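Why does residue order matter? Because the sequence determines the fold. Keep that principle in mind as you read this record.
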Amino acid sequence: MEELKESYELYELAISAANIGVWDWKTSSDTVYYSKIWKAQVGYQEHELANNFETWENLLHPDEAKEVQQRVAEYIENPEGHMSMNLGLDIKTVLIYGYYLKLR
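Structure:
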């Protein structure tokens, strides 16, 4: 158990140092882990976003939401390989060259 704890601490240190936002969706329970860094990268404080898939769906750009939701549903039905797509999210702020720009 100590090795697992140490491994997790190293993982946390690495993603924090690299400023990598992470999310992990458990489809069986519809819960999503959004890291504090991921939430900050889309302009939110940790307490502002619930840890569920609906949060991600609500952040989808309205012009793309139906298509993205359809592709996700199709992949869940037939999960071969991996799924990758570019999409727009409704974010509050963006960090560009060290400056935050308010988007709302």
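Confidence is low (pLDDT under 50) at residues 96-101.
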